[in-house]
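Materials and Methods. Structural model of TonB-dependent receptor plug domain-containing protein. The 467-residue sequence of TonB-dependent receptor plug domain-containing protein from Thermocoleostomius sinensis A174 was retrieved and submitted for structure prediction as follows.
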Amino acid sequence: MCLWWFANSVRSALVVVVLAGGFGHGLVLPGWAQEVGEIGNREWGMGNGAEQQSDSTPDSRLLTPDSLSNLDQPAATVEEWLAQIQASLTQITRVRIETTDAGLQVILETADGALNVPETRAIGNALIADIPNATIAEEFSQANPIEGIALVNVTQLPGDRVRVAITGTDAPPSAEVTSEVQGLVLTVMLGDASAVAEEDAIQVVVTGEQDEGHNPRRASTATRTDTPLRDIPQSITVVPRQVLDDRNVRSVNQAVETVAGVIDNGDDGGYAGDRIIRGFSQGFGAAPANLRNGYRDVNYYSVTPIGTIEQIEVLRGPASVLFGALEPGGVINVITRQPLSEPFYEIAFEAGSYGFYQPNIDLSGPLTVDDTLLYRFIASYQNADSFQDFVNSERITVAPSVTLNLGDRTSLNFYYEYADLFLDSIQTYSFALSNGSLRGCLKRFEVSNLCQPPHHNPNHGKVDQGF
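The predicted structure was written out as tokens:
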């Protein structure tokens, strides 16, 4: 019991000593705590000696309402925010240009504060420097300040930037940028045109291709070679595929209607191939004047279908030295369509008046990945009547071909063409009698028919094959 009382007494005494030291000088407090404690002691009269008197003047290190008002406050409105941004920008008040031995100096002066040093870059013949966080009171421009400098521009850009553009006459100048206390100095040296790298120069490349769709430049009829027409002394007219499609022609006779010096010599309902070239007939009894890919073709009936033709070449004038015995008026050479290296697929159907209808199919493309072997397959069927009585026709065409490319300038073409023409036609040459009727070779008939009675022509067919 005595020991317990003694222990409690000792513990109580230690607590009293600690508390007494805390109110005295035995307890060390942080500086701010001491300051606040001293101020509190002065206000409450708890200090020692003279400090026991209450002092109503607050310590200057305390935050008071007056000191809070002196702190920077965030913007509360858009106008205040813009004003703060404007206050952070540096305004260029004046721009001066001074000449030097090496070139010139562009001096940007400010009322207060230095400008940020920009990076320079060349665009064409111009040296560009964009200064951030800056404005300019008045934009500046001066042309030809010295020889070798075409223009100096100082302009305002969006985003609070000022651009200095110095354009050289022959090459972009170079510049050294120096920051001053109240401004910026660009020391400009003239550029050397010979030192401009070729890859840095601006190049304008224009690539053009001649559109030979309506105006081909080459033909093989006169020379049997792919020679430009301007280098051939003979008179040659080429009717390309584009013109055939635009005019929607259905026979070789229609295709050459627009060729000078060539006219139709009258045919059996529009299917014969009798033409007059420079006054010389190409019909019955005449020397062959129709060619197909440079080789003799049938002379009278136009069996070759228009769907297999790539272009028609008309050579006017004597050509016996090239093709043997020919009429001196000229020849007509039909160039057929060849296999293509790009895939091409066409299926068409045509229909018209007088019972005309014609389905077509044209397929072409490569058979191998390296385009060494190419193919083309053309097939068509045509059936038609006419505005003339007793005229009707039926045409069947199948034309496959294969091309083997042996090199860049060498190819071997294998082709096969089957063409068959079933024709009922009339003779169009007649003369009028005194009684008002027309007289032909066979019999007399009424004028209202405007033709002779029909005569049946046998089938006109051909098969072309070769390489």
